[in-house]
From TrEMBL:
This is Transmembrane protein 222. The keyword Metal-binding does not apply. Keywords: Membrane, Transmembrane, Transmembrane helix. Pfam families: RTE1. The keyword Transmembrane helix applies. The chain crosses the membrane at residues 34-54, 145-163, 169-186.
């Protein structure tokens, strides 16, 4: 289904038909956790409580289905390993040569590859899976996406999935800081 934008260009609402020049993105369905053309992030219990910039990451297909490297030899589909997304980063298929089709193909290829890999918290993890997908589609003509770039990008540019996402990310950290501050003060 195509529509005309205010500038007179054609925009499609069907993500599989989206070309490299389409301007309209499909809507995010927060209730069902479908985030078309997004990177999603959720806190990892205990680890994120002490380091709020560290979390679990996945990448979504054009239809919003989340793919995340959830553990050794396993890429989860539509159910993140550590719960519902707390943050998301909206990307655009216009930065992919081939648009939505190549986006989906790259996410699928990265998922198949990571389905054969051992998970390693420090060097071959969920962030690496997302980076591999972005490199495969040459997002923004780049092939040097890395877990560090993605962690910083999500931390500084990611949006919260409402107030619940913000609380889920920061409340445990603030409790840990308050406990440490209280213990330090009374010693």
């Amino acid at each position: 289904m195509t529509q005309t934008t205010p500038t007179g260009e054609l925009a499609t609402s069907n993500p599989t038909e989206m070309g490299a020049t389409s301007l309209e993105l499909p809507n995010i369905d927060f209730q069902n956790d479908h985030y078309p053309f997004c990177i999603v992030w959720t806190p990892i219990p205990i680890l994120t409580w002490f380091f709020p910039f560290i979390g679990h990451m996945g990448i979504c297909m054009s239809n919003g289905v989340i793919r995340d490297f959830a553990g050794s030899y396993f890429v989860s589909e539509d159910k993140m390993a550590f719960g519902r997304p707390a943050r998301y980063l909206r990307l655009h298929p216009k930065y992919v040569e081939g648009g939505g089709f190549i986006w989906d193909e790259s996410v699928s290829k990265a998922s198949v590859l990571y389905g054969t890999r051992m998970h390693n918290l420090f060097c071959d993890n969920c962030h690496s899976h997302v980076a591999t997908a972005l490199c495969g589609m040459r997002y923004k003509h780049r092939t040097n996406w890395s877990m560090c770039i993605l962690a910083f990008w999500m931390f500084f540019c990611g949006r919260y999935v409402g107030i619940k996402g913000f609380i889920k990310t920061w409340l445990p950290f603030l409790i840990v800081v308050a406990i440490c501050g209280t213990l330090t003060y009374y010693q």
